[in-house]
Amino acid sequence: MLEALGDRDLARRDAMAKLPQRLVNVRASDRAALATAMGQQAVREAIDREDGALSGRGRVLVRASGTEPLIRVMVEAPSQSETDAVCTRLTQVVEAAIAGIG
Q: Is the pLDDT of residue 32 over 90?
């Protein structure tokens, strides 16, 4: 990355292009439900699958909130449509995992 930036002024806004991002908060009934949902194989597999599909082009972050009974699903991808599609698929898997707990 440093070679790509060369002698550019890092304070410049265009030093690195920003990718479209989407963050969705999925509410759970309590903190125990968060841990159970995040530990489910279907959730882990979906995260790995989507992250692998974006390999080097974007990123996926799915984590339990540290302060609220929420699972945060964040996706960055090259286009807004891909970002929304990946985020929607992951959110559906997380919602299904939480619904299966309650």
A: no
Cβ atoms of residues 62 and 72 within 8 Å:
yes
CATH number at residue 64: 3.30.310.50
Query: Which tens digits make up the pLDDT trace of 34-65?
Result: 889 999 999 999 999 999 999 999 999 999 99
What is the strand order of the sheet 21-27 is part of? 21-27, 70-76, 59-64
Token pair in block for residue 32: 């125990």
Ramachandran area for residue 87 (φ above 0: left; ψ -120 to 50: alpha; else beta): alpha
Which residues form the domain of 44? 18-101
Which one-letter amino acid corresponds to residue 79? S
Q: What pTM value is reported for the model?
A: 0.82
